[in-house]
């Protein structure tokens, strides 16, 4: 067997976010993967606390979480961590206070809204990620705990672009949110899913050539590009698909199962 470890993005790939569905064909494919000896792993922008609905149906051998900044084994033991420096968290808090932007942080096992509670809450509700979601009006939880990712909602994209330009150690990814404005994930610039996967591969003695990666968004591009087989979901843009080896059908149309029909046929040659 040439490939032995599979990494799945969650939203738009394995998981239908807006209706909390994992297709039966996907669950059956994961069972088949395990029987064939593959390791099955998550590679997601979500923190662990936002995986609860998914974990009711799928357990993973490893977890590459919060865009690669927090890596856990199957028993949820920490393997790698790359939190945002506290100074930058402080500066994000002040920026959002000044401009009245919605702000929250993902920590290891909880997420905290800091301000503009209801726009942030509504976004989290849409994404089915209300578990372990708290409100910190003191805006100080990050001073006592490691923040791995900031999530931010605003109407003024230029201010965020300027902030990132002044902080090259950080990066901001535009995310799709059902809100009046722009949504951003902000995290360390030297970090992404591919970095988290690479650290895990090193730990377990595996290589990129042995991996299969599935994704649908720009934060999946590097792992799709580096994988032995990179598969873009049908809902991905043509730009994202250009970095994959092939594209499959969408998350609503048996995308994972259809991809593995092709992969298994090739593996068995």
Automatic annotation (TrEMBL):
Pfam families with a match to the protein in the record: Hydrolase_3
Any one GO molecular function term: phosphatase activity
GO (cellular component) term, any one: cytosol
PROSITE patterns: COF_2
Protein name: HAD family hydrolase
Species for this entry: Catenisphaera adipataccumulans
């Amino acid at each position: 067997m040439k490939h032995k470890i599979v990494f799945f993005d969650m939203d738009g790939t394995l998981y239908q976010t807006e209706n909390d569905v994992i297709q039966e064909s996907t669950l059956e494919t994961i069972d088949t993967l395990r029987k064939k000896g593959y390791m099955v792993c998550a590679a997601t922008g979500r923190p662990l606390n936002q995986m609860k609905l998914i974990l009711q149906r799928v357990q993973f051998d490893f977890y590459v979480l919060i865009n690669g900044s927090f890596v856990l084994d199957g028993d949820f033991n920490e393997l790698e961590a790359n939190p945002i420096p506290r100074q930058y968290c402080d500066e994000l808090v002040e920026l959002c206070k000044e401009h009245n932007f919605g702000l929250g942080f993902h920590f290891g096992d909880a997420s905290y809204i800091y301000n503009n509670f209801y726009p942030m809450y509504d976004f989290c509700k849409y994404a089915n990620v209300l578990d372990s979601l708290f409100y910190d009006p003191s805006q100080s939880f990050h001073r006592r705990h490691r923040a791995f990712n900031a999530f931010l909602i605003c109407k003024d994209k230029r201010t965020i672009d300027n902030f990132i330009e002044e902080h090259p150690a950080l990066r901001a990814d535009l995310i799709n949110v059902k809100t009046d404005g722009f949504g951003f994930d902000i995290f360390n610039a030297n970090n992404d899913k591919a970095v988290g996967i690479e650290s895990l591969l090193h730990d377990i003695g595996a290589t990129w050539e042995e991996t299969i990666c599935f994704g649908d968004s720009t934060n999946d591009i590097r792992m799709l590009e580096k994988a032995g087989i990179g598969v873009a979901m049908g809902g991905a843009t043509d730009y994202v698909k250009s970095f994959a080896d092939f594209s499959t059908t969408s998350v609503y149309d048996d995308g994972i199962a259809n991809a593995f029909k092709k992969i298994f046929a090739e593996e068995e040659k």
